[in-house]
Design goal:
Elements lengths: L1 E11 L3 E11 L6 E11 L2 E4 L2 E4 L1 H17 L6 E5 L5 E4 L20 H9 L1 H8 L8 H10 L3 H5 L2 E4 H10 L4 E2 H4 L5 E2 L4 E2 L1 H6 L10 E2 L4 E4 L2 H7 L5 E3 L4 H7 L9 E5 L3 E7 L6 H5 L3 E4 L5 E7 L3 H12 L6 H10 L20 H11 L8 H27 L6 E4 L6 H11 L3 E3 L4 H14 L5 H11 L3 E3 L7 H14 L1
Parallel strand pairs: 1-6, 6-14, 9-12, 15-19, 19-20
Antiparallel strand pairs: 1-2, 2-3, 4-5, 7-8, 10-11, 13-14, 15-16, 16-18, 17-18, 20-21
C-alpha cells in the first residue's frame, strides 16, 4: 500500500475538539481510499467569568499545538494543517496584534433582547433581504451590537476581527484572514453579493474597519511561524483555510448527482440542502431558513435546530446529582420507555441556556397538559421523538421552499451514532435515512486540503472518495408506531408555543 498524501485536521466543536490524521492511500490496482486516524481529543468547556460565559482560547491553542506535536511523535509528517470550528464566535485584536480578552461564548446572555433592538432599527424583512439569515440570538451581529451597546472598551480599540478558526490560524501563522464560510454565519454579509455588508455595520455602529478581505476554503493562509516550529520541533507546515464545521461536514456527504437533503447532527442540528445560488424571498423569510456560504461555489439553505444539546445537558445534570450514566445506557432506557407519552418543541428558547434542563422539559410537558416524564428513559425518549418529528417538519418546509421531493435524507455527525435517533428519524419522515460518515466535519476538512493539493480534483471527486472509503448505514422507516397521530400532536404544540 502506498500513501499518496498525509494531512492533519482539527475539528473543534462546542464541547470537544479532535485531531485527525487523514491519509490518502492506494493499493496497487485498487481505487484510492481515505483513512482517518484520531490522534488527540480534548474538552472544550465554557468558562464562567463574572456575569459572562467565555471560551478558553489559549487552552484551545495549547491543545492544537499538542495535536501537532503528537502527529510528529506518531511518525506522521503532514503536508498541511486545517482547523474547522463552529461559527458566530470571534476574537478581537488590538493595533499590535494582541488578543483583547477571551472570546464570548455564543450562549452568553449579553445578546438578550438584541434581536428586537436590531429588527426595530433595520426592519426584520429588510435584514433578511440583505443577509438571508435565520435570526438566532447568538449570531455575531447581535454579539457585536451588544458589546457596542454596553460600551465595550475592547470593541472601541479593536483593529482586527477574527472568528475562532481564523484566530487559531493567526496564533499559529501570524497571518490575519477572514474565511468566507465562517464569515457567512455572522449575519453581517451581503449574502447574494458575497461581500461584507459595511452599510449594515455602519447603521449599527459596528466598526467595519476590523473586518478583512475574505478568503475561500482551501486557500493557503501561511506556514507555522518560526517560534511555533521551534517550540514543537516541527517543520514550517502550511495552514489551509478549512471551512466552517457544518460546511466541512457537507463536503463529506456521499451524495450523487441531483438535489439532496442532509442533517448534520450534533450539539446543534443543521437540516438543509445544497444550492448554487441563495434562496431569499418572502417564503424563506417566513420559514426562517438561512442562506450560508458553502464550499466551492455552493450555498447552504438550512435551518438550525436545537439538537443534542438538550440531552447533553440532561446527562450532565444527572451526573452532577451522582447518577453516572453512559449515553448507551440512556438510549437503552429510552428504547424501553413508552412511545409518544409526551413531546416538546426542541426550539423553545427555554431549552437554549444551560442548567435546569430536566426541570424545563418537565415544565413544558406540564404546561401543555401532557404526561410529565420522570425517569431518565422517559425524558430521553421524549427528546428523541420530538427531535425526529422536528426533522420531519423542517424537511417538509425545505421541500416546500425548493420544490424538491427528497427520496430520503443523509445524516452525518456525532449524533448519527445514536441508533435509536436514526431509526426514529427514518420512521418520522417515512423515508430512508443514509447515515455516515460519523466524523464528517473532520473528513470534509481533510478533503478540502486534498483538493488544494490536487489529490482530489473537485467537490464531486471528493464525495466519490467518501463513498469508496466509509460505510453507509441505511435506516428504513418502521410503521409499528402511530407516527401520523404523533405528528399532528407535535404540530399543535408548535402552534401553541
Amino acid at each position: 500500500m502506498s500513501r499518496l498524501s498525509t494531512v492533519l485536521a482539527f475539528d473543534l466543536g462546542a464541547g470537544s475538539g479532535r485531531a485527525f490524521i487523514g491519509e490518502l492511500t492506494n493499493d496497487e490496482g485498487q481505487t484510492p481510499k481515505l483513512e482517518m486516524q484520531e490522534i488527540h481529543r480534548f474538552p472544550n468547556p465554557a468558562i464562567h467569568v463574572g456575569d459572562h460565559l467565555h471560551w478558553d482560547i489559549l487552552h484551545l491553542l495549547h491543545e492544537v499545538k499538542t495535536g501537532i506535536r503528537k502527529a510528529y511523535q506518531a511518525g506522521y509528517q503532514p503536508e498541511t494543517i486545517g482547523i474547522d470550528t463552529w461559527g458566530v464566535d470571534f476574537g478581537l485584536l488590538d493595533v499590535n496584534g494582541e488578543l483583547l480578552g477571551n472570546p464570548y461564548h455564543y450562549r452568553d446572555r449579553q445578546t438578550d433582547g438584541m434581536i428586537e433592538e436590531i429588527t426595530a432599527r433595520i426592519g426584520a424583512s429588510e435584514l433578511y433581504q440583505q443577509t438571508g439569515m435565520q435570526n438566532m440570538p447568538f449570531n455575531t451581529i447581535y454579539q457585536l451590537f451588544a458589546m457596542n451597546q454596553a460600551g465595550s472598551v475592547h470593541l472601541s480599540v479593536a483593529q482586527h476581527f477574527l472568528m475562532i478558526s481564523d484566530l487559531l490560524a493567526y496564533l499559529l501563522t501570524g497571518r490575519r484572514t477572514n474565511e468566507y464560510t465562517m464569515a457567512t454565519t455572522t449575519q453581517l454579509m451581503h449574502t447574494a453579493q458575497r461581500v461584507w455588508n459595511t452599510s449594515l455595520m455602519d447603521s449599527l455602529s459596528i466598526p467595519s474597519r476590523i473586518f478583512s478581505d475574505l478568503i475561500q476554503p482551501g486557500e493557503i493562509i501561511g506556514p507555522l511561524t518560526a517560534n511555533v516550529c521551534v517550540e514543537l520541533g516541527v517543520a514550517p507546515i502550511d495552514v489551509i483555510a478549512a471551512a466552517h464545521d457544518t460546511t466541512s461536514a457537507i463536503v463529506a456527504i456521499p451524495a450523487g448527482e441531483g438535489p439532496f437533503a442532509y442533517l448534520v447532527c450534533g450539539t446543534w442540528n443543521m437540516l438543509g440542502t445544497e444550492l448554487k445560488e441563495p434562496l431569499i424571498n418572502a417564503e424563506s423569510a417566513k420559514l426562517a431558513f438561512s442562506n450560508e456560504g458553502g464550499a466551492y461555489g455552493t450555498f447552504k439553505l438550512l435551518k438550525s435546530i436545537m439538537g443534542l444539546w438538550i440531552i447533553q445537558e440532561c446527562k450532565r445534570e444527572w451526573e452532577e446529582a451522582g447518577n453516572t450514566i453512559s449515553y448507551s445506557e440512556l438510549v437503552l432506557q429510552a428504547r424501553e420507555a413508552p412511545a409518544f407519552s409526551c413531546l416538546i418543541n426542541p426550539d423553545d428558547l427555554r431549552f437554549y441556556s444551560p442548567h435546569g434542563m430536566v426541570e424545563r422539559i418537565q415544565a413544558f410537558c406540564r404546561e401543555t397538559g401532557q404526561y410529565v416524564p420522570v425517569s431518565e428513559g422517559e425524558v430521553i425518549r421524549c427528546v428523541l421523538e420530538s427531535l425526529a418529528l422536528r426533522y420531519r417538519y423542517t424537511l417538509e418546509e425545505l421541500e416546500q421552499l425548493t420544490g424538491n421531493r427528497f427520496g430520503g435524507m443523509h445524516m452525518v455527525g456525532g449524533g448519527s451514532q445514536n441508533e435509536l435517533l436514526c431509526q426514529l428519524t427514518a420512521s418520522a419522515i417515512g423515508r430512508p435515512v443514509w447515515v455516515g460518515p460519523i466524523e464528517a466535519s473532520a473528513i470534509g476538512n481533510v478533503l478540502t486540503q486534498l483538493i488544494t493539493s490536487g489529490h482530489c480534483q473537485n467537490l464531486a471527486d471528493a464525495r466519490r472518495l467518501v463513498k469508496e472509503s466509509f460505510p453507509i448505514i441505511v435506516y428504513e422507516p418502521q410503521v409499528d408506531l402511530p407516527w401520523e397521530e404523533a405528528y399532528v400532536r407535535f404540530i399543535q404544540l408548535l402552534e401553541r408555543c
